[in-house]
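Sample pair:
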Amino acid sequence: MSYDGKILALARDRLDAVRERNAREREMRETSAYAAKPELRAIDAALRAQMTELVRLTLSGGPDAAEKIEKLREDNLALQSRRGELLRQLGHGGDWLDEIVSCEKCRDSGVYRGGVCSCLKKLYNEELTRDLGVLLKNGGESFEKFDLSLYDAEYRGSMQTVYEIAKAFAEQFSPASGNLLFQGGTGLGKTFLSACVARAVAARGYSVCYDTAAAVVGSFEAQKFSRDEEADARVKRILSCDLMILDDLGTEMPTPMADSALYTLINTRLNEGKNTIISTNLRDGELQKRYGAQICSRLFGAYERVPFVGRDIRMLKR
Protein backbone atom coordinates (compact mmCIF):
# COMPACT_ATOMS: atom_id res chain seq x y z
CA MET A 1 0.00 0.00 0.00
CA SER A 2 1.30 3.46 -0.92
CA TYR A 3 0.89 6.16 1.71
CA ASP A 4 0.15 9.87 1.39
CA GLY A 5 3.07 11.57 3.17
CA LYS A 6 0.99 14.37 4.71
CA ILE A 7 -1.67 12.02 6.02
CA LEU A 8 0.94 9.59 7.33
CA ALA A 9 2.58 12.49 9.19
CA LEU A 10 -0.76 13.30 10.82
CA ALA A 11 -1.15 9.67 11.83
CA ARG A 12 2.38 9.65 13.31
CA ASP A 13 1.55 12.80 15.27
CA ARG A 14 -1.43 11.00 16.76
CA LEU A 15 0.73 8.01 17.63
CA ASP A 16 3.24 10.33 19.27
CA ALA A 17 0.39 11.75 21.35
CA VAL A 18 -0.58 8.21 22.42
CA ARG A 19 3.03 7.52 23.43
CA GLU A 20 3.24 10.78 25.40
CA ARG A 21 -0.06 10.10 27.15
CA ASN A 22 1.15 6.65 28.19
CA ALA A 23 4.43 8.11 29.43
CA ARG A 24 2.58 10.69 31.54
CA GLU A 25 0.35 7.99 33.00
CA ARG A 26 3.36 5.88 33.94
CA GLU A 27 5.06 8.91 35.52
CA MET A 28 1.94 9.62 37.59
CA ARG A 29 1.82 6.00 38.74
CA GLU A 30 5.51 6.09 39.64
CA THR A 31 5.14 9.30 41.65
CA SER A 32 2.16 7.89 43.53
CA ALA A 33 3.81 4.55 44.24
CA TYR A 34 7.13 6.06 45.39
CA ALA A 35 5.30 8.39 47.76
CA ALA A 36 3.34 5.52 49.28
CA LYS A 37 6.24 3.03 49.34
CA PRO A 38 9.65 4.81 49.24
CA GLU A 39 11.38 1.41 49.11
CA LEU A 40 10.11 1.06 45.54
CA ARG A 41 12.29 3.95 44.39
CA ALA A 42 15.40 2.26 45.82
CA ILE A 43 14.43 -1.08 44.25
CA ASP A 44 13.96 0.47 40.81
CA ALA A 45 17.31 2.23 41.09
CA ALA A 46 18.94 -1.08 42.05
CA LEU A 47 17.29 -2.86 39.12
CA ARG A 48 18.66 -0.24 36.71
CA ALA A 49 22.13 -0.61 38.21
CA GLN A 50 21.89 -4.39 37.80
CA MET A 51 21.04 -4.00 34.14
CA THR A 52 24.08 -1.77 33.60
CA GLU A 53 26.29 -4.29 35.40
CA LEU A 54 24.87 -7.15 33.32
CA VAL A 55 25.79 -5.35 30.11
CA ARG A 56 29.31 -4.67 31.44
CA LEU A 57 29.86 -8.29 32.46
CA THR A 58 28.50 -9.59 29.16
CA LEU A 59 30.84 -7.38 27.13
CA SER A 60 33.95 -7.71 29.30
CA GLY A 61 33.73 -11.45 29.93
CA GLY A 62 36.45 -12.83 32.18
CA PRO A 63 36.95 -16.13 34.03
CA ASP A 64 34.38 -15.39 36.73
CA ALA A 65 31.84 -13.54 34.55
CA ALA A 66 29.42 -16.48 34.40
CA GLU A 67 29.41 -16.81 38.20
CA LYS A 68 28.82 -13.07 38.67
CA ILE A 69 26.01 -13.07 36.08
CA GLU A 70 24.30 -15.94 37.89
CA LYS A 71 24.57 -14.08 41.21
CA LEU A 72 23.21 -10.97 39.52
CA ARG A 73 20.27 -12.97 38.22
CA GLU A 74 19.44 -14.29 41.69
CA ASP A 75 19.61 -10.80 43.20
CA ASN A 76 17.44 -9.47 40.38
CA LEU A 77 14.74 -12.09 40.98
CA ALA A 78 14.73 -11.25 44.69
CA LEU A 79 14.29 -7.55 43.96
CA GLN A 80 11.55 -8.24 41.42
CA SER A 81 9.74 -10.38 43.98
CA ARG A 82 9.96 -7.67 46.64
CA ARG A 83 8.83 -5.04 44.13
CA GLY A 84 5.78 -7.11 43.23
CA GLU A 85 4.94 -7.61 46.90
CA LEU A 86 5.04 -3.87 47.57
CA LEU A 87 2.84 -3.13 44.56
CA ARG A 88 0.31 -5.73 45.66
CA GLN A 89 0.20 -4.05 49.06
CA LEU A 90 -0.87 -0.92 47.19
CA GLY A 91 -3.60 -2.90 45.40
CA HIS A 92 -1.83 -3.14 42.04
CA GLY A 93 -0.42 -5.89 39.87
CA GLY A 94 3.28 -6.61 39.69
CA ASP A 95 3.55 -4.91 36.29
CA TRP A 96 1.76 -1.70 37.31
CA LEU A 97 4.95 0.39 37.06
CA ASP A 98 6.14 -1.19 33.81
CA GLU A 99 6.23 0.79 30.58
CA ILE A 100 2.69 1.41 29.27
CA VAL A 101 2.14 0.67 25.58
CA SER A 102 -1.06 0.70 23.53
CA CYS A 103 0.28 -1.66 20.84
CA GLU A 104 2.17 -4.73 21.97
CA LYS A 105 3.34 -5.49 18.42
CA CYS A 106 5.38 -2.34 17.82
CA ARG A 107 5.35 -0.91 21.37
CA ASP A 108 3.93 2.33 19.95
CA SER A 109 6.77 2.87 17.50
CA GLY A 110 4.54 2.45 14.45
CA VAL A 111 7.05 0.06 12.88
CA TYR A 112 6.58 -3.71 12.83
CA ARG A 113 8.77 -6.21 10.99
CA GLY A 114 10.24 -3.47 8.84
CA GLY A 115 6.89 -2.06 7.75
CA VAL A 116 4.00 0.08 8.97
CA CYS A 117 2.38 -1.44 12.04
CA SER A 118 -1.36 -2.08 12.03
CA CYS A 119 -1.85 0.49 14.81
CA LEU A 120 -0.33 3.27 12.68
CA LYS A 121 -2.23 2.06 9.61
CA LYS A 122 -5.48 2.30 11.59
CA LEU A 123 -4.69 5.91 12.54
CA TYR A 124 -3.75 6.61 8.91
CA ASN A 125 -7.07 5.21 7.71
CA GLU A 126 -8.94 7.28 10.28
CA GLU A 127 -7.26 10.40 8.91
CA LEU A 128 -8.20 9.31 5.40
CA THR A 129 -11.82 8.95 6.38
CA ARG A 130 -12.15 12.40 7.92
CA ASP A 131 -13.65 13.61 4.63
CA LEU A 132 -16.58 11.28 5.23
CA GLY A 133 -18.08 14.15 7.19
CA VAL A 134 -19.96 15.16 4.03
CA LEU A 135 -21.53 11.72 3.79
CA LEU A 136 -22.00 11.09 7.52
CA LYS A 137 -23.52 14.49 8.13
CA ASN A 138 -26.46 13.31 10.23
CA GLY A 139 -24.48 11.13 12.61
CA GLY A 140 -27.18 8.46 12.57
CA GLU A 141 -26.34 6.55 9.42
CA SER A 142 -26.50 2.92 10.54
CA PHE A 143 -28.12 -0.24 9.26
CA GLU A 144 -30.29 -0.36 12.38
CA LYS A 145 -31.92 2.91 11.29
CA PHE A 146 -32.74 1.77 7.75
CA ASP A 147 -36.55 1.82 7.85
CA LEU A 148 -38.18 -0.60 5.40
CA SER A 149 -41.63 0.60 6.46
CA LEU A 150 -41.01 3.78 4.44
CA TYR A 151 -41.30 1.73 1.25
CA ASP A 152 -44.64 0.68 -0.20
CA ALA A 153 -45.54 -2.95 0.45
CA GLU A 154 -44.99 -3.92 -3.18
CA TYR A 155 -41.35 -2.74 -3.03
CA ARG A 156 -40.50 -3.82 0.49
CA GLY A 157 -39.26 -7.31 -0.45
CA SER A 158 -36.91 -5.94 -3.09
CA MET A 159 -35.55 -3.32 -0.72
CA GLN A 160 -35.07 -5.96 1.98
CA THR A 161 -32.75 -7.74 -0.47
CA VAL A 162 -30.92 -4.47 -1.20
CA TYR A 163 -30.48 -3.89 2.53
CA GLU A 164 -29.09 -7.39 3.08
CA ILE A 165 -26.61 -7.04 0.19
CA ALA A 166 -25.28 -3.73 1.57
CA LYS A 167 -25.11 -5.01 5.15
CA ALA A 168 -23.28 -8.21 4.15
CA PHE A 169 -20.84 -6.16 2.04
CA ALA A 170 -20.00 -3.98 5.06
CA GLU A 171 -19.81 -6.78 7.63
CA GLN A 172 -17.69 -9.06 5.44
CA PHE A 173 -15.60 -6.32 3.89
CA SER A 174 -12.13 -7.35 2.75
CA PRO A 175 -9.80 -6.52 -0.16
CA ALA A 176 -11.69 -9.15 -2.17
CA SER A 177 -15.22 -7.87 -1.50
CA GLY A 178 -15.76 -6.59 -5.03
CA ASN A 179 -17.86 -3.67 -6.24
CA LEU A 180 -21.48 -2.55 -6.03
CA LEU A 181 -23.49 -0.40 -8.45
CA PHE A 182 -26.48 1.19 -6.70
CA GLN A 183 -29.11 2.09 -9.32
CA GLY A 184 -32.45 3.78 -8.84
CA GLY A 185 -34.33 7.06 -8.80
CA THR A 186 -33.82 9.91 -6.37
CA GLY A 187 -34.77 9.57 -2.73
CA LEU A 188 -34.68 5.76 -2.57
CA GLY A 189 -31.89 5.42 0.01
CA LYS A 190 -28.79 4.97 -2.15
CA THR A 191 -26.77 7.63 -0.34
CA PHE A 192 -28.06 6.56 3.08
CA LEU A 193 -27.06 2.92 2.58
CA SER A 194 -23.71 4.07 1.16
CA ALA A 195 -23.20 6.01 4.39
CA CYS A 196 -24.14 2.94 6.45
CA VAL A 197 -21.53 0.89 4.59
CA ALA A 198 -18.92 3.65 4.93
CA ARG A 199 -19.45 3.98 8.68
CA ALA A 200 -19.24 0.21 9.27
CA VAL A 201 -16.19 -0.31 7.04
CA ALA A 202 -14.31 2.69 8.46
CA ALA A 203 -15.04 1.48 12.01
CA ARG A 204 -13.13 -1.70 11.19
CA GLY A 205 -10.00 0.30 10.36
CA TYR A 206 -10.25 0.38 6.57
CA SER A 207 -9.74 3.61 4.62
CA VAL A 208 -12.88 4.97 2.99
CA CYS A 209 -13.24 7.93 0.65
CA TYR A 210 -16.49 9.51 -0.51
CA ASP A 211 -17.22 12.06 -3.19
CA THR A 212 -19.71 12.90 -5.90
CA ALA A 213 -18.85 12.19 -9.52
CA ALA A 214 -18.77 15.93 -10.24
CA ALA A 215 -16.30 16.58 -7.39
CA VAL A 216 -14.08 13.69 -8.46
CA VAL A 217 -13.94 15.04 -12.01
CA GLY A 218 -13.07 18.44 -10.56
CA SER A 219 -10.18 16.94 -8.58
CA PHE A 220 -8.78 15.22 -11.67
CA GLU A 221 -9.07 18.46 -13.66
CA ALA A 222 -7.32 20.48 -10.94
CA GLN A 223 -4.56 17.88 -10.75
CA LYS A 224 -4.00 17.97 -14.50
CA PHE A 225 -4.35 21.64 -15.35
CA SER A 226 -3.44 23.62 -12.24
CA ARG A 227 -0.82 21.34 -10.64
CA ASP A 228 -2.73 21.68 -7.38
CA GLU A 229 -0.93 19.72 -4.62
CA GLU A 230 -4.10 19.24 -2.63
CA ALA A 231 -5.93 17.95 -5.70
CA ASP A 232 -3.02 15.63 -6.44
CA ALA A 233 -3.20 14.21 -2.92
CA ARG A 234 -6.98 13.90 -3.24
CA VAL A 235 -6.71 11.92 -6.48
CA LYS A 236 -4.12 9.62 -4.94
CA ARG A 237 -6.45 8.92 -2.01
CA ILE A 238 -9.37 8.30 -4.36
CA LEU A 239 -7.35 5.74 -6.28
CA SER A 240 -5.68 4.01 -3.33
CA CYS A 241 -8.24 3.90 -0.48
CA ASP A 242 -9.67 0.53 0.54
CA LEU A 243 -13.22 1.58 -0.34
CA MET A 244 -14.21 4.41 -2.68
CA ILE A 245 -17.83 5.57 -2.69
CA LEU A 246 -18.67 7.52 -5.85
CA ASP A 247 -22.07 9.19 -5.57
CA ASP A 248 -24.37 10.65 -8.21
CA LEU A 249 -22.72 9.19 -11.31
CA GLY A 250 -24.35 10.94 -14.26
CA THR A 251 -24.75 14.36 -12.65
CA GLU A 252 -21.30 15.55 -13.76
CA MET A 253 -20.95 17.63 -16.93
CA PRO A 254 -20.56 15.28 -19.92
CA THR A 255 -17.12 16.16 -21.30
CA PRO A 256 -14.18 14.13 -22.62
CA MET A 257 -12.25 15.12 -19.48
CA ALA A 258 -15.04 13.79 -17.26
CA ASP A 259 -15.16 10.49 -19.13
CA SER A 260 -11.37 10.18 -18.90
CA ALA A 261 -11.38 10.87 -15.15
CA LEU A 262 -14.15 8.37 -14.47
CA TYR A 263 -12.52 5.73 -16.62
CA THR A 264 -9.21 6.25 -14.81
CA LEU A 265 -10.88 5.89 -11.42
CA ILE A 266 -12.90 2.79 -12.34
CA ASN A 267 -10.17 1.03 -14.31
CA THR A 268 -7.30 1.80 -11.92
CA ARG A 269 -9.22 0.55 -8.90
CA LEU A 270 -10.27 -2.61 -10.74
CA ASN A 271 -6.69 -3.32 -11.80
CA GLU A 272 -5.43 -2.82 -8.26
CA GLY A 273 -8.19 -4.92 -6.69
CA LYS A 274 -9.70 -1.95 -4.81
CA ASN A 275 -13.38 -2.03 -3.81
CA THR A 276 -15.79 0.62 -5.07
CA ILE A 277 -19.46 1.52 -4.62
CA ILE A 278 -21.02 3.69 -7.33
CA SER A 279 -24.51 5.11 -7.08
CA THR A 280 -26.47 6.51 -10.00
CA ASN A 281 -30.00 7.50 -11.00
CA LEU A 282 -29.36 6.17 -14.52
CA ARG A 283 -30.74 2.88 -15.81
CA ASP A 284 -28.66 0.48 -17.91
CA GLY A 285 -29.76 1.99 -21.22
CA GLU A 286 -29.10 5.52 -19.99
CA LEU A 287 -25.63 4.53 -18.79
CA GLN A 288 -24.84 3.02 -22.19
CA LYS A 289 -26.07 6.16 -23.92
CA ARG A 290 -24.14 8.48 -21.60
CA TYR A 291 -20.83 6.60 -21.37
CA GLY A 292 -18.67 4.71 -23.83
CA ALA A 293 -18.15 0.98 -24.04
CA GLN A 294 -14.95 1.17 -21.97
CA ILE A 295 -16.75 2.43 -18.87
CA CYS A 296 -19.98 0.48 -19.31
CA SER A 297 -18.24 -2.84 -19.92
CA ARG A 298 -16.48 -2.45 -16.58
CA LEU A 299 -19.61 -1.33 -14.74
CA PHE A 300 -21.70 -4.20 -16.10
CA GLY A 301 -18.96 -6.80 -15.95
CA ALA A 302 -17.17 -6.09 -12.66
CA TYR A 303 -19.92 -4.58 -10.48
CA GLU A 304 -22.85 -6.26 -8.78
CA ARG A 305 -25.86 -4.22 -9.80
CA VAL A 306 -28.19 -3.41 -6.90
CA PRO A 307 -31.55 -1.95 -8.02
CA PHE A 308 -33.33 0.47 -5.65
CA VAL A 309 -37.08 0.66 -6.20
CA GLY A 310 -40.05 2.53 -4.77
CA ARG A 311 -41.25 6.10 -4.41
CA ASP A 312 -39.11 9.08 -3.37
CA ILE A 313 -38.83 8.70 0.44
CA ARG A 314 -37.84 12.32 0.92
CA MET A 315 -41.04 13.44 -0.79
CA LEU A 316 -43.12 11.00 1.28
CA LYS A 317 -41.56 12.29 4.52
CA ARG A 318 -42.19 15.85 3.49
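The two ends are 45 Å apart (CA to CA).
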